[in-house]
Amino acid sequence: MPPATSPASGRPARFAAVDVVRGLAILAMVAYHLAWDLYYLGFTATDVMAEPGWIGFQRAILSSFLLLVGAALVLGHGRFIRWPAFWRRFAVLVAAALLVSAGTYAVFPEYFVFFGVLHAIALFSLCALPLLRAPLWLLLALAAAFLLVPLLLVVPEFSDRRLAWIGLWAETPPTTDIVPLFPWFGVVLAGVAAMRLLLASPWRPLLESWRPTRWSRWLAVAGRWSLVIYVLHQPLLFGGLTLLAQLQQPTALPGNVATFTQSCEAGCSETGRPGDYCQRYCSCALEQVEAGDLWSLLEANTETAAAQGALASVRQLCSAMAE
Question: Burial letters for 57-75: b for 16+ Cβ neighbours within 10 Å, e otherwise?
Answer without folding.
Answer: bbeebbebbbbbbbbbbbb
